[in-house]
């Protein structure tokens, strides 16, 4: 990769790139799409595991995330609780289409790839498959939202299969109708909330792993993706080969909901990993081995 190509990838919000655009040993590159409030940064343990296996693996920062993320002064110490509850989010207008455009811009650079979504990132993966199926060799969902019969993530979130999600018990930080985004204070020091967050997202990890993982999350996530139609279309995205990796110990996206999405969409190659929601962190070596075997 020359310097001009490298700068182009950086401008597109790509992190942890290794030889992007080069197929290794006949294996396509893997492009990762992060979940809510996150960035490609929390996927670094996984992309590093894959690059150390000789794979091209990279993660994209979606618009308004990562280097473009919203980390306001009220989110720093000491925190301004009033501003946290009232300030309108400047990234509220980001849409699913914006996410798709960002991912497609990277796919056009690195060629047909295995597109991997974690959590809310699955919605963008499906929409990208609908838009440019010829650029996606395989779609992979890591305990991720995959819409088909139910058109939006919001519909899946409200389903009876999601009733066991511990996300429903996490206390809200702000009224979304006021701040115009899903806002959460990941930098809380409330021991009860931290205990609930660990149980919800990373029960198979340590307290240190919890703090390291949520410490890089930003407070706001735009609503646009969750309420947009991201259902796989039979004539486009529905024809892309797809794999679902069930995180069987996930308390955020419960197994019942994962099974519903697999049943609704059908035609999944299904694998199981005994992992929490952030199994991309706690089980990175095992997950990398699984992904390395996909074509």
From TrEMBL:
One of its GO terms (molecular function) is methyl indole-3-acetate esterase activity. InterPro entries: AB_hydrolase_1 (IPR000073), AB_hydrolase_fold (IPR029058), MES/HNL (IPR045889). Residues 1-20 form the signal peptide. Keywords: Signal. The keyword Chloroplast does not apply. Residues 30-277 form the AB hydrolase-1 domain. The keyword Transmembrane does not apply. This is Pimeloyl-ACP methyl ester carboxylesterase. It comes from Kutzneria kofuensis.
